[in-house]
């Protein structure tokens, strides 16, 4: 995910938003404060991967956002409930995640440490015959291709219950049209991280058109096979 960027001299600012499930309104307020412009209601949000879920979720109720574009969008809630691969999460797995979340919260009182959770395999070489959706992510995040020293590949267990109760797209249908679905054939989720030209081919035109016209609009860019997102 690229760092947050803004053009304060332009009539509208396009920021790449990185946020969390429970603080989705903070980036928009930050933009309005930092932009120092009268165009604080002409905000465009670009969400990549999980931010492709958080940005539309925020825009459902924050009318300062006039246009949203996503690339390789993922709903963290859907992914947690259904698994990295479609419908691979079992009721027992779901229950164990909620139990881990509860134990993590209890540790605030008991002081008993709870292990962090690995989001992906530690080594790409261990992916073996796992589903393509997992191997594709591991080939990006667990290799020099996309790995970063500060990307620890872990989360705290108390995140599970928050994510499992989250649905990024549940009420997107109530947002005013137009909405667009752009399908990119032959690309995987991780391919959209590398192939920037392909992933952003419609982005500039979309934001320029709908931010200037001041209408609230959505453009979802998904690959042909995207196991994370269910509409």
Automatic annotation (TrEMBL):
InterPro entries recorded: AB_hydrolase_fold (IPR029058), Polyketide_trans_af380 (IPR051411)
Alphabetically ordered keywords of this record: Hydrolase
GO MF annotation, one: hydrolase activity
The keyword Ribonucleoprotein is assigned to this record: no
Entry keyword Hydrolase: yes
Protein family per UniProt: Belongs to the polyketide transferase af380 family.
Name of this protein: Alpha beta superfamily hydrolase
Species annotation: Grosmannia clavigera (strain kw1407 / UAMH 11150)
């Amino acid at each position: 995910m690229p760092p947050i960027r803004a053009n304060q001299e332009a009539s509208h600012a396009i920021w790449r938003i990185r946020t969390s499930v429970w603080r989705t309104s903070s980036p928009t307020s930050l933009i309005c404060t930092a932009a120092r412009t009268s165009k604080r209601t002409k905000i465009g949000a670009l969400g990549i991967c999980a931010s492709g879920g958080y940005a539309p979720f925020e825009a459902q109720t924050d009318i300062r956002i006039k246009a949203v574009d996503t690339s390789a969008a993922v709903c963290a809630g859907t992914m947690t409930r259904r698994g990295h691969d479609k419908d691979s999460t079992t009721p027992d797995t779901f229950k164990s995640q909620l139990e881990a979340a509860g134990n993590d919260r209890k540790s605030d009182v008991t002081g008993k440490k709870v292990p962090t959770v690995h989001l992906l395999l530690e080594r790409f070489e261990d992916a073996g015959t796992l589903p393509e959706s997992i191997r594709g992510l591991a080939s990006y995040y667990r290799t020099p291709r996309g790995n970063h020293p500060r990307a620890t590949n872990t989360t705290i267990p108390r995140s599970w219950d928050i994510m499992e109760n989250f649905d990024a797209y549940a009420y997107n249908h109530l947002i005013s049209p137009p909405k667009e679905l752009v399908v990119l054939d032959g690309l995987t989720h991780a391919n959209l991280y590398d192939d920037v030209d392909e992933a952003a081919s419609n982005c500039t035109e979309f934001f320029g058109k709908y931010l200037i016209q001041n209408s609230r609009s959505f453009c979802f860019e998904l690959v042909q096979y995207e196991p994370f997102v269910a509409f």
